[in-house]
Every structure is written in structure tokens, then in C-alpha cells.
């Protein structure tokens, strides 16, 4: 009576399920599969905590079941917490709790300088990594400071992300920039700096900027210097771009000048050749304007340098060509050889200006001094 027959208690043989397969031996294939799993991105390997577990941790914080820590906040507020949770979540709090004097079962720490509600949101995050959207919008700056002070990198990244994705604006960018410098968040500080530079007039009129000007005048001067430097740099880039454009146009004009004097174009051509009336469209964009300038130069009665404005421009183009031309004896451009001889009698100041112009033109087009404009190379 009371004994159980083991054989009769067993189910029939057919109903016995097959045993699970034995774990594979540490062979090469198992090692390879394990390594492949480890090499996968972290998002495919991380398993999030279930909602039930998070609710349980929230209840543990809200109810303070067997709490053994009292956190004092501004205004005389108290927040009850657990030593083990705080110690595991923050190494700074672990050291604070170790140094605090125990009174009965209670240990006490103090967090001041931020609103009590922000401290509560911060401590709740240590339990369940949860926060409400409206709480983050209201206390994002305080949570950023707390996460940095108590070394909670997960919350710090959350604060940075929310600031970058919408909480950062022209009204608070000055405060966020100062906190980003203090809390060692280089990406956030760089974003704030760019926003300040782009909207310096609006930002400098905010209350945060005025407070910074009084409390940190050196930082305010540094920001203004950076804005001015950035503005000057932008103007300098525009100036250099315009200069490069002018140098390219001058180089193209030199090409068109040699093209006109060697082959002829439209109505102007070399004297020793017969001009063909029907010609395909010219590939030199500067040819049309230069041709009109040469036609005026040929018929103008004030052709001397310093006379007509158009003739003066033509003299300058001819002199520029003569300084770029490597073979004035076989060159078909008028006055090239004569202007080469004239260079030797030019004063030093004008000579320096012409050399700088020629150097900039060649540098803009990527041409060295050894390869200057030659009649044979321009129309190849």
C-alpha cells in the first residue's frame, strides 16, 4: 500500500519522446558557428529586457520595498532606493554609498543643484532604463549633468540624442553648448557651435547669451572671434574663387588670341592666309569678344597706351601673351617680339606685378613654368 510500480507507471514505449540531441563537441564547425554569432552586429545579439521585468523594477522603485538608501534633494525631498541597484548602475554612487555612514539599515546620500523631480527621473532610469517623453523634454539638461556626474553613459547618450533630434533650439543652444563643454560631449558641442555660427544674430539676443556674457566673458569673446574668423574665411573663399575664375578667363583669352592670329575666326585672320567664309562654330568662348576687341584696336585712332579704354585692354592682353609665350620669333600674335624687348626696360614694380599675374594664371590651370603658352600647343 503506498508503493508505486515503476514499470506499470511508465507510458508505452511509443509515447516516449525522443531524447534531445547531445551538445556538439568543441569541433571546428561549432567554433566557427560561435565565432560567426559573435561577429554579427550587436543589434542582432542584444536581447532587450521584457516589459514585465521593467514594470517589476519600476514597482520596486515606486514602492521602495526593503529600501536601504535615502537620497536627499533640494527642498527637503527624500527618495528611497536600494544600495545594490545604485551600486551596479553607477560606480560613483557605489563609492558614495561605501563612504556614507550607516544609521541602522539606512545609508544617506545627497544630490543637490537640480530639481527634485529630475533626480527622481534619474534614479528611476537607474532601475529600469525608462523615462517619459515629457520628462525628458523638461529635464534634459539636468539629466545630462547627472548622467555625466554619476557616470551613466546610457542616459548620457539618450540626452544627446534627444537634443540633436529636436530639443536643441536657438533659445537654449548657448546653455547646451556650455554644458556640452563641461560634460565632455564633443559631437553635441560641435552641433551647437555650428548652430551658433549660422544664427549668431538671433542667438546673441537670447537670455542665455546675455547670462553667458556676464558669467563667462572669455567664452563669449572666443565665440565671437570664431564667428568672425568663419565669416572672413568664407569671404576669402569667395574672393579666391572669383580670382580663379578671372585667371581662367585670361588663360582662355590667351588661347583664343593665338587661335585668331594663327587660323582666323569669323572675319579676322592671319594676313598670309585667305579667310574662309564658311566655318564651323568656334570652340573658344572668348573668341567672339576678343575678335570685336581686335577689330576696334585695328581701326581706332587712339591706339597708343593710355588712350582708348578698349585699346588699353588690348595692349594689356598682348603684353600678357608676350609674357606667356615661349617662342616670340615664330609666334603669329602681333607685337609679341616687340613687347618681349620692352619688358627689359620695365621698372621693377611693374615687373613684379606682371610676374605674379602670370604665376597665378599658370598655377590656376595647373601649368608649370616650363610649359607656357606656345602657338603649337594651344590649337593641338
UniProtKB/TrEMBL annotation:
Alphabetized InterPro entries for the sequence: BT1/2/3/4/5 (IPR044513), BTB/POZ_dom (IPR000210), SKP1/BTB/POZ_sf (IPR011333), TAZ_dom_sf (IPR035898), Znf_TAZ (IPR000197)
Parts forming coiled coils: none
GO terms, biological process: regulation of DNA-templated transcription; response to hormone; response to hydrogen peroxide; response to salicylic acid
Segments forming domain TAZ-type: 240-339
GO MF annotation list: calmodulin binding; zinc ion binding
PROSITE patterns: BTB (PS50097), ZF_TAZ (PS50134)
Pathway(s) it belongs to: Protein modification; protein ubiquitination
Keywords recorded for this protein, A-Z: Metal-binding, Ubl conjugation pathway, Zinc, Zinc-finger
Record domain BTB: where: 67-135
UniProt protein name: BTB/POZ and TAZ domain-containing protein 4
Organism: Trapa natans (Water chestnut)
